[in-house]
Amino acid sequence: MKPTFLAILLAIIMCFQCTISYAENKDEMIRAPHFFALGKVGSNDVLKMECEGQKPLYSNINCVFTHVIISKKTEIELAKERNRRQAELSKMTSKDVEQMKNILKQQKITKERLDLLNALTPEKKKYSDKVLAMTQDSAKSKNKTEAFNIINDFEEFDNQCCSIRVTTWKEEFQRVSQLKWISNPGPQGLCNVVRIKTLETDNDHYLLWKFTEITVSADYDKTRNDMFDKICADIKINQPTIYSWDVPTDMIMNCQCIKYSH
Predict the structure, then answer these.
(1) pTM score, two decimals?
(2) What is the C-alpha separation between 74 and 127, in angstroms, rounded?
C-alpha cells in the first residue's frame, strides 16, 4: 500500500518537531559524546561536536566544535544602512566622484583574472557580474547623484544576501554524572571571563544532546574607562546560550545571494 498524502505530511511534521542527531548504528553508542547538528534557541545558528576520550567511561573528553552562523540583516539594520549611505552622499563632492571614477577606470582585468571569472559556477558568476556591472557603471557616471544611485542600487541588492560564518574551537570536559559533562577552565582573557559549558543528554543511549554555555563572571574597572573596559562591561552575565536536539535546524530566509564572512 502506498503512503497517503496525510501520512507523508504527518511524517514531515514529526520530523520538524524532533530534529534528532541520532546514531547511525548501535556501535556508535559506545563512542565519545558527539552530535551532528544542534539548533540554537532563538537563533539560526547550528553547532556540531566531535569528542575523543578513554572508553568506556569517558571521564575526560577533548571536543572539537564547529559553529555555523547564518544571518541576514533585519529591517532595522537595513534602515540604518540607508541612513548611513545618505549621510555619505551629502558629504560627497564632485571632486570625490571624479577621483572614484579615475580609480575605477584604472582597474584592468588581467587574462588570468578573466579566465578565473569565466570558470566560476553559474551561481557565483551571477554575483560577479553584478559587481562588475556596478563598477563599470560607476566609472561612467556623469555626476554625484548618478554615481550614488548606481552604488545604492547595488547596496540594496547586496544587503539582501545571507551571511554564513563558520568557526571552530576546542574544549575539554570532565564527566560529573552519568549523563553530564562540564567544562570550566577558569578566568580567561583580558576581562577574566569565567564561562561554564555543560554537555548533557536525557537518556542512556546518548542520542539526544543539549549544550549550554553561560558566563558567570567578568571583571571590569570603571575608573580605567578605556576600550577594553567597555568591552568587559558589555559582557552579558548569567544569560545562557542553549543548543538542543529539539530545536529545528531547517529555515526559510529568502536570500538573494549567499556570502561567506570572517
Answers:
(1) 0.76
(2) 21
